[in-house]
UniProtKB/TrEMBL annotation:
Keyword DNA-binding: yes
Annotated source species: Leucobacter tardus
Keyword DNA-binding: yes
MF annotations from Gene Ontology: DNA-binding transcription factor activity; transcription cis-regulatory region binding
Segments of the chain annotated as binding DNA: 40-59
Protein name: TetR/AcrR family transcriptional regulator
Length: 184
């Protein structure tokens, strides 16, 4: 990873956006590579080329950095899809990506309830809220749909037994899930 030069003074708005994206990129990669317990704010700061104080000011602590990193992996939520099917494709694509699977594995391996809660709220629960928007606000139904969308495809990804799915595989998986649940 290239060393990021720091300049003195306050960053511009554009520099803040770039800095925040860099921090979350670095944090996501580190969480996926090392696991939650082996990643420190010092390490994130050093790799991202920022002061540790910046992480505390921006996020508050390591669980909050994890939450922000997971939210970034679920960036589809910032751009509503036109239809339920499109929302489902976006979710499956996100949760089955190498980076998302790596972070998920790291959180499970950590056996840390604080990390697990941060992950749960920023990832799965946020995805269910997103789906509920397409289901008349029905969170229970959204939870069932989310579980079905993960299904065997996501389990195989978590176990390292399947590569990241292609767009065609995601489309087929989503179509099958929606058909089984009579939502297509």
């Amino acid at each position: 990873m290239p060393v990021v030069e720091r300049k003195r003074g306050r960053p511009t708005a554009a520099e803040k956006v770039e800095r925040d994206q860099r921090i979350l990129q670095v944090a996501t990669d580190l969480f996926a590579e090392l696991d939650f317990h082996r990643v420190s704010l010092d390490l994130i700061a050093a790799r991202a080329g920022v002061a540790k104080r910046t992480l505390y000011d921006q996020y508050g602590g390591k669980p909050a950095v994890l939450s922000a990193a997971v939210r970034q992996l679920h960036s589809y939520a910032q751009h509503p899809a036109p239809h339920l099917r499109d929302a489902c494709v976006a979710i499956v694509s996100a949760v089955c990506s190498d980076r998302a699977v790596g972070v998920h594995r790291a959180v499970i391996a950590s056996a840390d309830t604080v990390a697990a809660r941060a992950f749960l709220e920023s990832g799965p629960r946020a995805a269910q809220q997103y789906l509920a928007g397409y289901l008349g606000g029905d969170l229970a139904r959204a939870g069932h749909l989310f579980a079905a969308l993960l299904g065997e495809l996501h389990r195989l990804r978590l176990l390292g037994l399947a590569p990241a799915p292609t767009r065609a595989m995601v489309d087929r998986h989503v179509s099958d899930v929606l058909a089984v649940l009579s939502m297509s």
